[in-house]
Amino acid sequence: MEIFLDKRAVRQIRLSAQDAIEEGDTESLREDVLEAFTEDQVEEIERRLDNGDFFEFLTDCLMEWNGDDVDELFELLETQLGEVGIDLKFEAAAGEEEEEEEEVDDDDDDEDDDEEEEEEEDEP
After folding, report:
1. Which of 66, 88, 61, 58 minimizes the C-alpha distance to 76?
2. Lowest-confidence segment of 13-22, 58-67, 76-85, 99-108 by average pLDDT
3. Which SS3 state, helix, strand or coil, does residue 17 take?
4. What pTM was estimated for this model as a whole?
5. What pLDDT digit, counting tens, does each position of 96-116 carry?
6. Contact (CB, 8 A) for 7 and 91
7. What whole-number distance in Å separates Cα of residue 37 and Cα of residue 123?
8. Is 119 a residue whose pLDDT tops 80?
9. DSSP characters for 55-109?
10. Which residues face 4 on adjacent strands?
C-alpha cells in the first residue's frame, strides 16, 4: 500500500518537529504526525501493525528519533512503515529548498500570464 502526504501535511510535521527539537517535547509532534494521516490510512496502518496501535507506533518512532534532524524523522517514519508494507511518499520532502523554488515558480507563472495577455492584445 502507498500513502501520500501532501505539502500541507509535510509542512505541519516539519514545523512541529522543529518545535520539538527546540523545546525537547514530542507530545505535540506525535499528535501532528497522527493528524497528517486520514482515518482510512490510520486504520490500514493499524491493521498491519502487530499491536494495532498507530499512536503507540508513533511513540516508538519518536523515541528512536534522535530529536535533532527533521529529515531523519521522515526517513524513520518511511522505514518503519515500510517494514509493515506501507510505502510512504511526500509531496515536498526537501522542505525549505522546495519552498524557495515554489516562490520562484509562482513568479514565473505570473510573467507567463502577462506575456499571454500581451499577445492577446496584439492580435486583431
Report:
1. 61
2. 99-108
3. helix
4. 0.70
5. 444 444 444 555 555 555 555
6. yes
7. 50
8. no
9. HHHHHHHHHHS-SS-HHHHHHHHHHHHHTTT-EEEESSTTTHHHHHHHHHHHHHH
10. 89
